[in-house]
Amino acid sequence: MIHVGVLGPVEVLTPTGEPVAIGGRRPASVVAALALAGGAPVSSEALVAEVWGADAQPGAVDTLQSYLSRLRRALEPERGAHDAPATLVRASAGYRLDPRAVSIDAVTFEQEVLEAREIVATGDDEAATQRFRCALGRWRGSVAEGADLGERGRAAATRLDELRLSATEERIAADLSLGRHRELAGELEPLVAANPTRERLHGLAMLALYRSGRQAEALAAFRRARTLLIDALGMEPSRQLHDLHERMLAQDPSLAPPVDDLLTDSAPRGPGGGRVRATRDPGPPRRRADDPPASVAASAVEVPGNLPAAMVDLVGRDDQRRRLVDELERSRLITLTGAGGCGKTQLGLQLARDAASRFAGGTWLVELQSVREADGVLRSITQVLGVDDAPMPDLVEDLAARIGGRPVLLLIDNCEHLVDECAAVIGDLLRRCPTLQVVATSRQTLDLDGELAWRVPSLSLPPADASLDQLGESDAAALFVARAAAVRPGFTPSEDDAATIAAICRELDGIPLALELAASRLRVLSVEEIADRLDDRFGMLRSSRRGVPARHQTLEAAIAWSYELLRPPTQQLLARLTVFEGPFTVTAAEGICADPQLPAEAVLELLDDLVDRSLVQTVGEPIGPARHALLQTIRSFARSRLDAPAEVALAAAHARWHADLADAAAAELTGADQVRWLNLLHTDHADLRAALTWSLEQGRVDIALRIVAGIWWFWLQFGHAHEGAGWLTRVLACIDGTSDLDRRRLAWATYGAGRLDGAEGRTVAALDRLERAERLAEEVEDRDLMVLARARLAQQRQIRGQTDAAARTLAAAQAEGSEDPWVLAGLSDVAGHLATATGDLTAAAAAFEASERHYLDADDRWSACLSRLGWAWVARRQGRVEEALALHGQNLATVRELTRSAFDFVGLARDLRGVGAIASGVGRDELALQLCAASEMLRTTGEVALTPDERAEVDEVIAQAEQRLGASVAAQVQATGEALTADGALALAASVVEELAPSAAPTSAGGASPASTAGPSPSS
Q1: Burial of 729 (0-12, 13-18, 19+ CB in 10 A)
Q2: Does residue 279 carry a pLDDT above 50?
Q3: Which are the contacts of 44, defined by CB distance < 8 A and separation ≥ 6?
Q4: What is the reported pLDDT for 744?
Q5: What is the CA radius of gyration of the chain?
Q6: Alpha carbon of 719 to those of 917, 936, 940, 953: distances in Å?
Q7: Residue 452 has what DSSP assignment?
Q8: Which pairs with CB-CB distance under 8 Å and at least 24 residues apart come from 713-716?
Q9: Does residue 404 come out as left (phi exceeding 0), alpha (psi in the -120 to 50 range) or beta?
Q10: Is 133 helix (H, G, I), strand (E, B) or coil?
Q11: What is the dihedral of CA 705, 711, 713, 714, to 10 degrees?
Q12: Which residues of 816-854 are buried (b: 16+ CB within 10 A; e: fewer)?
């Protein structure tokens, strides 16, 4: 195994101990940055920042790649050119040293310190001190001596230096308990001189001297310690150190026990009796996958305060920690808000620890959980700061005097049940004390001037079917795994566990408390059993840990704490909002949740209260009205507060509301306001599904018919053809024999079913549905619908090979005519497809051009894109490549302009294929492969199958690329294209159009020749 050392000058050793030449100062800095990440991936950008910092030049990334390549060769000199590296590997998030092939002395040091601490807990001091000595013996100098460290590296070095000193203290404590006080007295003298503010070292030195019979020197050591602490920190020694001094004066025989019992029995006291940070440092928790943010590295200098030592690591939140520490430079009051169990308190504590070195007056925790009286807020603050002996009217004055001009940070935890009192006290203190800053945690804001309200979100979630690698990129999954390992030592998720853990994280909304409670069940359940039992999450997610606040012992209690603080009308609205499956608008809440007991005009104020208390979240929408949502866990809790009759009434109101929405959408989806309506339906899709499900289950076919008749065009345009066809089939199957339904609506629903069947390639079903739609249109005397149904019948007959019948059917539709430009556009579109199929490409181009013009006259810019697709297809086959590029470019610009919350996956995928085919034709194989691969991913999302001609075109592009690039390179390029987002693929295609437009010329490759005249993909 390769050894990398950074606990001293950077060194790399072969498995036999031979040094590896790694180059000069900067290559050494690259090695140091990777090693200090402890095997976690480091991005190229982060490596450049570490090595070059502000001096980074535009070519720094290329230079970095050169360093990495040389380093790989040095680490694995015998690796073949095409073999995957085993030591310095490329991860999804950057580069990392693989711990399976590389040992890092810093990581080993941390592991050995942790093992030593575990041994201490067993009482075996001899074994513990040996393990500490082994760990400390790995240090050869300062961290990465001789290399340049960036911000992350310096933070890691600070943390390692602190751990080294803490481990030294703990080793000395273990040695003292073994009676080695004489040798330790001499060792401690230079340590104390080098670290004059570490109170524990002073205490250890005093005890070593005292036990060596040097009582006068021990007492003098206390006096020196007191002087140093007062000069450096402006504070008296802790109560523990004073007690040790007094017991030495009294020659207390109880000084014989181990030192741990003397110095760590409780948190020390600061000025006025307030608690300060404990001098016993438990050291850092287990190393996370990432280094802590550099900007929040813990200071090695202790300051006054009463913050409890961290018992477990704060998983994730690194970016929030950085930003919050920065915000403390600008904001005197930060309120951390969020739902119960989201981790406000833990984040607040970590923020206070991260920023502690800035506050010479101390960082102080004030806990309000058990406070119930209004005056208890001020009393709690003054008790912590040691001024609680004054009469109530004088408390604020005395408190302001105690704070004086020193920078002080107060962390006031759990303000929500006394929010008015907290606001009054905190506001008064901030006005009186200009050097005071406050971090408050509350489920609602304090609403004070200058307050920065910071919503603490749930942890980031893994994808639904996450792989093991993807699991590691999720903070929610990282927390679950970390807590699982704590209750089941050695727990390591397998690839088979990954998707199940992802499902648990997603079902629990990434709420830290819920994930910790779920992980604790691994004592008796498997991962699969936990996932299976989440339907009864409130029964299962309970904690038996001692010392846990009551509101955190169960998930239900955490939410009930907030729920019980609500007024009855607000509780009622929260329960009713559970009827929504997805994000909802205020208007929808007013329309569905209101009744005589809860008037519509009251909903806005009540909803605002729920958002303020973090029980409802406002979600960002790129277009349209503001929307709000409930976490699934809160929905489950609040829904249990609904009785059965109320639940039924709500579901009915919800279904009627969405039927009204579909009715309104039907007239808007093909007009000037179509973008807003398409995006609105996209956002409301989950609730439309729920309304359809309820309507069919309850036999309310009339409501279901209104919905499917109103939104089938949305399903077709936004790539939900398969789902839409399924809903229409179910609804229409329920209608047979029913005569009291709206026949015009039934006719349009039947036509929509035919269009969706056609998009799915089910021509027989499409023909049947379109023939029925034609008859129903004649019955209700809807001439435009009859013309459209007849035209699309012609298209499906052509696909079935019935060329003559298709021509006659289209002619009959054209003979009927229409004054509606949208209907004329549909006729021209079908004419273009039929002309293409018969090889009349000139007529086809004219027809598609006319179709585009008519759609634009009707303000249907989405459908105009489909007409251009047909026109571009024909242009490519006629060798008019520049014209085809221009048409695809128009489509891409339109999609970018119109899209807000989703893409027209059907049309966009086809544009990508078209541009890719043109790129292939001019020898740009890598671009062609990326676009075709991205198109395939979007097509899969859009549920639309490729036609034989489209498949042949894609196969030709791939074959050309593999021939010219080689199969291995082509596969890598395709993988790059598959990873593109829709937005990224759109941007790539637009850039290709811009690049190729002036120079594109027809060749025989990539489908630019007129080899195929079978026609473009049907637009259905």
Answers
A1: middle
A2: no
A3: 61, 64, 65, 94, 95
A4: 93
A5: 35
A6: 22, 13, 9, 21
A7: E
A8: 713/666, 713/669, 713/670, 713/752, 714/665, 714/669, 714/677, 714/678, 714/681, 714/682, 715/752, 715/756, 716/752, 716/755, 716/756, 716/759, 716/906, 716/1020
A9: left
A10: helix
A11: -150
A12: eebebbbbbbbbbbbbbbbbbbbebbebbbbbbbbbbbb
- Structure tokens, 282: 């438990």
**AA identity, residue 917:** A
Q: What per-residue confidence (pLDDT) applies to 1002? A: 41
Q: Which helix (H) or strand (E) holds 454?
A: strand 451-455
Kindly give, in sequence order, each residue whose CB lies less than 8 Å from that of residue 212, ignoring residues fewer than 6 positions away: 181, 182, 185
- Written as six digits, the tokens of 248 are 């030495």
User: Can you give the length of the chain in residues?
Assistant: 1020
Q: Does residue 333 contact residue 440 with C-beta atoms inside 8 Å?
A: yes
Q: In what order do the strands lie in the sheet with 451-455?
A: 363-367, 408-413, 436-441, 333-337, 451-455
Are 477 and 501 a contacting pair, CB within 8 Å?
Answer: yes
Helix (H), strand (E) at residue 617:
strand 617-619
In 3-state terms, what secondary structure has residue 629? strand
Tokens 């749930």 sit at which residue? 458
The pTM for the full model equals 0.59
Confidence of residue 903 (pLDDT cuts 50, 70, 90): very low
Q: Are strands 363-367 and 408-413 parallel, antiparallel or unpaired?
A: parallel
Residue 312 CB: number of other CB atoms within 10 A?
13
Give, in degrees to the nearest 5, the angle at Cα 370 between 547 and 375.
155
Alpha carbons 160 and 151: distance in angstroms, whole number: 14
Contact in structure between 879 and 1002 (CB atoms under 8 Å): yes
Q: Which residue has the tokens 């179709």?
A: 851
pLDDT in tens, 829-869: 999 999 999 999 999 999 999 999 999 999 988 889 889 99
Top mean pLDDT of 146-155, 275-284, 837-846 is at 837-846
The span from the CA of 580 to the CA of 592, in Å, is 10
Q: Say how many C-beta atoms besides its own lie within 10 A of residue 400's C-beta.
A: 16
**83 pLDDT exceeds 70?**
no
Q: In 3D, which of 239, 356, 222 has the Cα closest to residue 302? A: 356
Instruction: Look at strands 627-629 and 617-619 and give their pairing.
Output: antiparallel
> Confidence band (pLDDT; 50, 70, 90) for 654?
very high
Q: Return the structure tokens found at 908.
A: 């966009």
The tens digit of pLDDT for each residue in 517-529 reads 888 788 778 888 8
Here the tokens at position 339 are: 């739902």
Q: Is 377 helix (H, G, I), strand (E, B) or coil?
A: helix
Q: Distance (Å, rounded) from C-alpha 496 to C-alpha 527? A: 10
Residue type present at position 159 = R
Q: What angle do CA 885, 887, 893 make, to 5 degrees?
A: 100
Q: What is the pLDDT of residue 260?
A: 41
Residue 596, burial from CB neighbour count under 10 angstroms (0-12, 13-18, 19+): exposed
Distance of alpha carbon 824 from alpha carbon 783, whole angstroms: 12
Q: Are 106 and 7 in contact (CB under 8 A)?
A: yes
What is the CA angle 1014-1016-1018, rounded to 5?
110
Mean pLDDT of the chain: 82
Q: Taking the CB of residue 595, how many other CB atoms lie within 10 A of it?
A: 14
Whether pLDDT at 1015 is above 80: no
Q: Rounded to whole angstroms, what are the CA distances from 252 to 90, 221, 380?
A: 61, 18, 36
- Measure the CA–CA gap between 655 and 181, rounded to whole angstroms: 80
pLDDT of amino acid 942:
53
Give the position of tokens 């009855």. 568
11-13/2-5 β-pairing: antiparallel
User: Among positive and negative, which fits the CA dihedral 276, 278, 283, 287?
Assistant: negative
* Alpha-carbon separation of residue 395 from 361, 384, 391, 398, 430 (angstroms): 18, 13, 6, 5, 15
Q: How many CA atoms lie within 13 A of 508 on its CB side?
A: 36
- With beta carbons less than 8 A apart as the criterion, state whether 855 and 825 touch: yes
Paired strand residues for 104: 4
Tell me the C-alpha distance between 948 and 951, whole Å. Answer: 5
